[in-house]
Amino acid sequence: MKYWWWKIAAIVIFCYVLLAGMLTPLKPGIQSIDNTKGILGEELVVGVTGYNSYFGSALQNRAFLKLSDDKVIETHQITERGDYKADLRFNLPDHLSTGKDVERATLIINNEVDGSLILPNAILLKKEDNTKPSDKQWGQFNVNELFKADRFRFPYRNQLNETIRNTFFHVAIWFAMFILLITALVYSIRYLITKDLLLDTKAAAFTSVAIVYGLIGLATGAVWAKFTWGAFWTADVKLNMAAISVLIYMAYWLLRSSIADVDARGRVSAAYNIFAFVIMIPLIFIIPRLTDSLHPGNGGNPALGGEDLDNTLRMIFYPSIIALSLLGVWMSNLTYRYQILVDNEIEE
Amino acid sequence: MGVAIRQFWQLVRKEFALEFRNRVSLGAVLLFVVCAAYICYKVFITINGLAWISLFWIILLFAAINLIQRTFNASYMKRRWNYYTLYDSTVVYLSKYAYNLFFMGLVSVLLMGVMSLFFGNMIKDYPMFLIGLSLGILGMTGVMTFISAVVMRADSNGLLMSILAMPLCLPVLLLSMKVHAVSLRLIQDTAVTGDYLLLGGVDLLIFGIGLLLFPNLWKA
Q1: Are residues A191 and A322 in the same domain?
Q2: What is the mean pLDDT of residues A232-244?
Q3: Is A262 on the interface with B (CB under 8 A)?
Q4: Can you tell me the ipTM of this complex?
Q5: Which of A199, A292, B90, B135 could pair covalently with A299 via S-S, beta carbons 3.0-4.6 A apart?
């Protein structure tokens, strides 16, 4: 128990990640709207399709079109058709009062069951030449009047939809891979100082598990890209730099197997491991930030912030990193112990 | 320090003397550059600026592999014990680096001329092009010199050299290609100084880590 408690912890945490990560429903959201253009001074009718929403069950549905905090109009009529569909009717004012002729408004639906459903930049409000005068005016927006829903739900994001759960696997496995690579780096440095062959075996084991993690990371990323970007693989810089890094570490294996002398192999592969890690840092963390990229965290795209990683996701995401790292360490331990057995066999 | 500098010049002079006693390998690399550029010319006839830069760096990459993989070749390894007892390992690495750098400079200037002859001169900003080229060569030479030291004891070092060095050259290659794209006026970039600094930083990192790790490869 004294030595293997962390293995049980890894299994328990990973089961928690799988269960909580896959079973927790998403927050309600607006999946689609059938009308995206509103002409000022006229009535705007929008049919809304909700996701995980309770329009029909809720008693106090409200909907707003919002330009800014002091420019909001509320619907005068909402017709619910079941829990997922509703028709909203707005009487639009005859001006935008910003001096512009065209502006995008955010659609907000609020009720006591769902809380707030927000679709940013949903409707294009346009001023026509023959706009009829209307006495309708933009009003103030009072956030305190809205209902809040404080249930444990993952955020609903357009584009991402249910694939937001991949954060716990794709992102976490890259984090875990880096933890394993850093461990291997430390073992390599220690090998060069002490020349203890066990440390070299450990470094090789950690690197090989990290390569497997990298391949899983590429695969989960490819599936995610298929659902959000439309293709398994694109010319995106981050993807290709990550693939190159995996290639660099695969070459590490080839290098190891091409040197027969144990001592020389340890020395050479430790030196290469350190060199490869140093090169990988500009490859993954600097170059993708210089060019345009679809991948979050690069080229002006935010990552690990805002609504893409809120507190509910963090409660699964951070344990997932810990669990995958511990599982990686466990697999590496098994790998190097097996390698020691093989080496002893050869000696005998 | 004075001893180290004297040793450094001794080694560099000896490298040059050995090279010019048997000019085959250098001549082969120079001919390789001309042949590769000529084949590209016969295949493409005319190319745009982006293809110009891409071809330039691809040919330079393969020329560098051919040129630098014999840094620690078999005949050198025979004399390794002499070097090992006479010279400090840092001095050996520095002399090899300087020697490779000189020939990479020679090859790249030749390639620049040949490419301009076949495909037309597309360089709009010479200082920027040359700074990008020198920084790129510094990094590429650093990676390849180190990798040639890594593979010196492996069995199939020719093939191993390419698969180890090519992906590791990529950060330097991409950054210098970006600087070159600006110097050919293919893209507008007012913050190119940042790219110089980044490229210089990566070069310094490669050089430093190579120098630091080389003694471990050199000792047996």
Answers
A1: yes
A2: 88
A3: no
A4: 0.89
A5: A292
